[in-house]
Automatic annotation (TrEMBL):
Region (Disordered) residue spans: 339-369
Organism expressing this protein natively: Holothuria leucospilota (Black long sea cucumber)
InterPro entries: Transmembrane_26
Keyword Transport attributed: no
Protein name: Transmembrane protein 26
Compositional bias ranges of the Polar residues kind: 352-362
Lineage: Eukaryota, Metazoa, Echinodermata, Eleutherozoa, Echinozoa
Membrane-crossing residue ranges in chain numbering: 12-29, 35-52, 64-83, 142-161, 206-228
UniProt keyword annotations, A-Z: Membrane, Transmembrane, Transmembrane helix
Pfam families reported for this sequence: Tmem26
Length: 396
């Protein structure tokens, strides 16, 4: 591996480790629980992954999967879960102290506590002590969770940009980064804004479902399938081969095409490159789950605001466009497959003509010996008559 490639890959992994270390520290600091330091064990796994990648991959990164990003997410995502669950426990405890489920204390401040105390007919000190946690710690957890989610997206996008391109071209990498930016904006709105809605902030099952869908969508950053397939280049000109080699090659190609047509035509159309997989990945990991969850929130909880309505329509429109794109890609692949068969048939016919022109007219010869002279008797191509050359032309 080149030194420049190794340096870029190492820099990205060091950035992943530093951000993960800051995330673990934030959790330990706010919860005062040192057991969270065990998440740092993943740093050893990341170091082992780096050595394996440097040893067995000369390009610096794997083609379809980014293990460094997966290990990084395996550290930061649980930290964000711990911070969000601590906030959820604080809100549900405070809600129980208020004695009602109609109010979910999303905003925690001194003024808000005074309002809650008046509503519950309790003193401010009793209400604050019932939660078992200081409101300053809660607000600090909110700050750390929001900051980690925002910086997580930035580190993932910048890290993928700085990583060795591997098998990706510059055009494919630029498209991949643009797709990442669009995905990150939708993910941040889904996690930050949706979890703060009052009807959801104290509903444990829905809260956990949203976190699961958000975590599931982050797996897109570990895949390299969003890069489109580059155009194929055809070389012009032919290499001169013997007639026997051309005949053997033609028979092999014809056999492969026939076998592909009989057994793998449908499979070849469906698995027609990375673009199909990229579209399916976006549908299954983000736009589909996000649309289902947002529609459920609108229908079940009557949550209708401008932001929710806009992003719901956005996910629905993206799904329609992606399915339309899938139809176009599969149709074009089917046409390309038929054209590929026609090209092979045309090449076989052309190769047969080349062989006939190289071999020349087909003749059968016979020598006769008589009276010390040698005669050449040649059979014609167009008739069965026998033509005997004169002695003056046949003698040597």
């Amino acid at each position: 591996m080149l030194f420049k490639t190794a340096l870029k890959a190492t820099t990205v992994r060091v950035a992943f480790m530093l951000h993960s270390l800051a995330a673990v520290f934030a959790t330990v600091y706010t919860s005062q629980n040192s057991l969270y330091w065990f998440l740092s064990v993943a740093f050893i796994i990341m170091g082992m992954e780096m050595l394996i990648t440097y040893t067995f991959n000369e390009t610096g990164e794997w083609k379809w999967f980014v293990p460094a990003a997966f290990i990084y997410l395996a550290i930061v995502v649980p930290v964000i879960w711990f911070l969000e669950l601590d906030q959820l426990d604080y809100r549900t405890t405070l809600q129980s102290s208020l004695g009602t489920t109609d109010i979910c204390p999303v905003r925690i401040s001194q003024e808000a506590f005074e309002t809650y105390a008046c509503f519950a007919n309790k003193s401010l000190e009793d209400l604050q002590s019932s939660t078992g946690q200081n409101e300053e710690v809660y607000n600090l957890q909110v700050f750390f969770s929001t900051a980690l989610q925002q910086t997580l997206m930035m580190v993932l996008i910048l890290g993928r940009w700085m990583m060795p391109r591997g098998h990706l071209s510059r055009d494919q990498l630029s498209q991949l980064l643009l797709v990442y930016i669009g995905m990150a904006a939708d993910m941040l709105e889904f996690s930050l804004e949706t979890l703060k809605i009052e009807q959801i902030a104290c509903h444990r099952n829905i809260f956990l479902s949203i976190l699961c869908v958000w975590s599931w969508s982050l797996l897109q950053f570990t895949l390299g399938l969003t890069a489109t397939k580059g155009p194929k280049r055809r070389a012009f000109g032919r290499v001169q081969r013997s007639a026997t080699d051309e005949r053997v090659r033609a028979e092999r190609r014809r056999s492969r095409v026939e076998q592909f047509s009989r057994r793998h035509k449908t499979l070849g159309i469906l698995l027609c490159g990375t673009e199909v997989w990229a579209l399916l990945t976006s549908v299954l990991l983000q736009d589909g789950p996000f649309l289902v969850m947002r529609l459920y929130l609108i229908i079940a909880f009557k949550i209708i605001d401008q932001s929710m309505f806009f992003f719901t329509c956005k996910n629905a429109l993206l799904l329609v466009l992606q399915f339309y794109r899938l139809f176009v890609v599969i149709s074009e692949s089917s046409k390309s497959h038929k054209k590929h068969q026609a090209d092979h048939a045309h090449d076989d016919v052309e190769q047969g003509n080349v062989q006939n022109s190289q071999n020349g007219p087909r003749t059968n010869g016979k020598r006769t010996v008589g009276n010390g002279s040698v005669h050449i008797i040649e059979l014609g191509n167009l008739d069965d008559s026998v033509t005997e050359l004169p002695d003056g032309l046949a003698h040597r």
